[in-house]
Amino acid sequence: MPTTMRAQVFYEPHNMRLENVELPRIEENEVLIKVKAVGICGSDISYYLGKSPVDTPTGKGPIILGHEISGEVVDMGFIPESLKLFGIGDKVIVNPAQPCHACMYCLKGQVNLCESLINVGVSGNGGFAEYVKARFTNVYKVPYEMSFEEAAAVEPLACATYGVNNLDVQAGDTVVVMGPGPIGLMMVQLVKARGAGKVILVGILDYSLKKGKSLGADIVLNTANPGSPYYTEDLVGTVKELTGGVLAQRVIVPTGSTIAMQQALEISGKKSTIVYFGLPGEKDQIVIPALPTLQADKTIRFSWLAPLTWPTAIQAVHSGLVDVKALITHRFELSELSEAIQFMGSKEEEKIKGMVIL
């Protein structure tokens, strides 16, 4: 076992360097994993570009980012070893949100609200490195026939699964997904599998909308480009027309855009459910028209992290119910991470999901 490893160390916005650092030292309740694949999340892009602070006392580094992790077990502490939960060489993924399992929220099963939550790659060192450590309670084995790329995509799928759980889709519902990013495209597949009668995908880039159509969206709408064959100038009017005037029964917003969040209120009908999933800015606000929302008896929910959804997400990938590999459009080496994050955060159209392969 080496004593050092290569890692991309993030210091502050636009300042991340490939360095040799000390190999993580595991505690008795931890597992050491040799990293094989790590997804580039929108939050990684936000941290690098300075749009959001990392969850450290200073809001800056040094910290190793990366929380969509797959790899192989290479060492473990006394507790997981004595429980015989893992073997050396097991293919595993990491749930980055590590709860304490002792606070009031954890004892209620609301582990995403843990008062002492540690997030791998956000508040502690993550997976943009050759090795990463995690508590054994947050490490899950995956089938060997699942590729490391697919396994790394389970983390965002677990989050998407929790959001769709909150959406409570009923058979035949018209569901609108506001945003064809990686999470939105996973949600399209999930709501379709749960019996949605009509899935409408709304976005601003035709490339992603076409991908959504190939993955199960019945109708795609472009709200930004008048030259698009999917363009609509009046989203509310179009949804009303598509639903015979009743608007959507379910709307989920996997984007932090306040425009999309506001539109969700306008395109949802009576007795509808809206789920806000995407991460807005710290000072962003939406305005809820109190009386008409009350009179429509709407339910507004929010979705945070991925509590208790990981086995479901693993099965969804393994069974082929959700195709995550179709979303991976770009692959990068660890040494290219700074350039990769900038590219994935740029306005280049033909890209969906970037993955770092080690």
Structural features, described:
- It comes from Paenibacillus abyssi.
- Residues 11-358 form the Enoyl reductase (ER) domain.
- This is Galactitol-1-phosphate 5-dehydrogenase.
- Keywords: Metal-binding, Oxidoreductase, Zinc.
- InterPro entries: ADH-like_C, ADH-like_N, ER, GroES-like_sf, NAD(P)-bd_dom_sf, Zn_alcohol_dh.
- There is one protein chain.
- The protein is of the alpha/beta class and 358 residues long.
- It folds into two domains: 4-153 and 324-357, Medium-chain alcohol dehydrogenases, catalytic domain (Quinone Oxidoreductase, Chain A, domain 1, Alpha-Beta Complex); 158-302, NAD(P)-binding Rossmann-like Domain (Rossmann fold), CATH 3.40.50.720.
- The chain contains twelve helices and 17 strands.
- Strands 3, 4, 5, 8, 9, 16 and 17 form a seven-stranded mixed β-sheet that branches. A six-stranded parallel β-sheet has the order 12-11-10-13-14-15, sandwiched between helices.
- Helix 5 crosses helix 6 (182-193).
- The radius of gyration is 21 Å and the shape is globular.
- The two termini are 17 Å apart.
- The mean pLDDT is 97.
